[in-house]
Amino acid sequence: MLIDHLNAKLQAIAAKDLTRVLRVAESATAPRQRVRAAGSAQARELLMFCSNDYLGLAAHPALAAAVHEGVRRYGVGSGASHLISGHSQAHAELEARLAEWMAPQIPQARALFFCTGYMANLAVLSALGDAEAAIFSEELNHASLIDGARLAKAEVQRFRHGDVAQLDGLLAACRRPIRLIVTDAVFSMDGDLAPLPALLALAERHDAWLVVDDAHGFGVLGPCGRGSLAHFGLRSERLIAIGTLGKAAGVAGAFVAAAPTIVEYLVQAARPYIFTTAAPPALAHALLASLELIGSDEGERRRIHLRRLQDRLRAGLGDIVARHARGAWRLIASDTPVHALVVGGNDVALRLAAHLERAGLRVPAIRPPTVPPGTARLRITLCATHTEGDVDRLLEAIDAAAREVA
Prior knowledge:
Layout: H1 2-15, E1 23-25, E2 32-37, E3 44-48, H2 61-74, H3 82-86, H4 89-102, E4 110-114, H5 117-128, E5 133-138, H6 143-151, E6 155-159, H7 164-173, E7 178-184, H8 196-205, E8 209-213, H9 228-231, E9 239-244, E10 254-258, H10 260-269, H11 271-274, H12 281-294, H13 297-325, E11 330-331, E12 338-344, H14 346-358, E13 361-362, E14 365-366, E15 376-381, H15 388-405
Parallel strand pairs: 3-13, 5-6, 5-7, 7-8, 8-9
Antiparallel strand pairs: 1-2, 2-3, 4-10, 9-10, 11-12, 12-15, 14-15
């Protein structure tokens, strides 16, 4: 019965052009990567525009050397959860460094390291969102924030994307003593930024806390790559920041930075922290090297190059939309490495992605439920290791695909 039930659901997914296909990468994360479909023996090199390795650090020699050094010092596994015996010197040093990193934005910040960003978001919302709390969640928040809110005992209300006025009204009507405003900083499928200064102003006016998931801003935005909060020059004890370390930082894991009492409560009460084996200490050791690179002159050169690529890509995409789409497609405004070309139907997005792959480029078609129905898109991400020639090749391929599909 179960197999029949699942087969019927799989057929329904396929009928809506929503089937996802697993791929196997046979080489390191880089603009050019050998990739094959799962179950296939044949791989081909593709020019990739789908990685979140925004600064191109995932295969950086300094990080590879740091991992080797970490393995030499600490071995491979951590052996237990943080609260049993798995909290190594590398974890402690990383948390101290991250606390220093976030101190300009959060007074007296303390940081806590997690295995993944998903776990960090589940931990924050399920632990802080108790029965005394209300969660105000941005409608385009990442799935991990949505799931964290579902696990919480708090009342949950959604507000429209970027609608500060609506949120103001919801906060004013709230009678719960604890209020958590929850938002992505950079929206991962759109590339736009949340209005963080306005959201923080509301938090201060309504005695609320602002939880910011900076997965796609950390390392890329702000002075020295310190993230979206630094980009806006924000500083407040009401900020709870979550940063992902497997994207621009090039390694793995995530952190929460907040006031010391908040972080101590997470240590005592956050189930995703308490009841899981700690991440390998060698990765924490490598992340110390990553933070040094992000804040260095080399890191700044990479961010400058990345911004130039972003400008080149957006100018070219704007021309393509104007020539071919006749108003049916739109390019979402973005000052980040994430660029969304919204084409509407799932079939159109799939045909465009297939055309690009035949031309040797990997640009995924993003479809519901990842994005709202009717907003299927090509999600293009840039890395500092791309070249201007790579971007030009992509634009030429999209132009050719648009002539065929639009």
